[in-house]
Amino acid sequence: MELIAGLDHVNLLIDEAPDWRERADAFYAELLGLRAIERPRNTDSGSPGAWYQCGAQQLHLTTAPGASSQNRASRRHPAFRVVDADAMRARLGRAGVEIIAGNAFPGQKRFFVLDPWGNRIEVLAP
């Protein structure tokens, strides 16, 4: 019997700064195309953050001290499935985002980028 029905959301840590929300929206909503959604005021962390819809799942961002240094040292990452990896690569490249090559896997195109806080983001398409 399956007990887990799916993945609901992923939470990433970002540094809190006066412009954190503008930077988050610029990267995740405007550049990647995720839709910002309302975040409850009573989250468990008690820290500021933002939520985005990503298909049937959500991406949550939570502010935390020292997040960028922790993120840059980690290989953890969400992987966003896109319709056209080449188009997304071009879009990110035009915005000045560094493209990091990933190993080739059969049947998919993939690459990585870092968000403004050093979170590793995988982008892939069949």
Concise overview:
Helix content is 22%, strand content 31%. The protein is α/β, with parallel strands linked by helices and 126 residues long. The strands form two sheets. It has a four-stranded mixed beta sheet with strand order 1-4-3-2. A four-stranded mixed beta sheet has the order 5-8-7-6.
Which strand-content bin applies to the residues? 25-35%
Oligomer state equals single chain
Give a count of the beta strands, DSSP E runs of length 2 or more.
8
Query: SSE string, helix = H, strand = E?
Result: EHEEEHEHEEE
Biggest sheet, spatial arrangement of strands? 1-4-3-2
Tell me the radius of gyration: 15 Å
Instruction: Work out the helix count.
Output: 3
CA-to-CA gap between the ends?
A: 30 Å
Helix content: 10-25%
So what's the overall shape? globular
Main beta-sheet annotation: 4 strands, mixed
Structural commentary:
The chain contains 3 helices and 8 strands, in the order βαβββαβαβββ. It has a 4-stranded mixed beta sheet. A 4-stranded mixed beta sheet has the order 5-8-7-6. The model has no long low-confidence stretch (mean pLDDT 95). It has 126 residues and is α/β, with parallel strands linked by helices. The longest helix has 12 residues, at 20-31. The two termini are 30 Å apart. Helix content is 22%, strand content 31%.
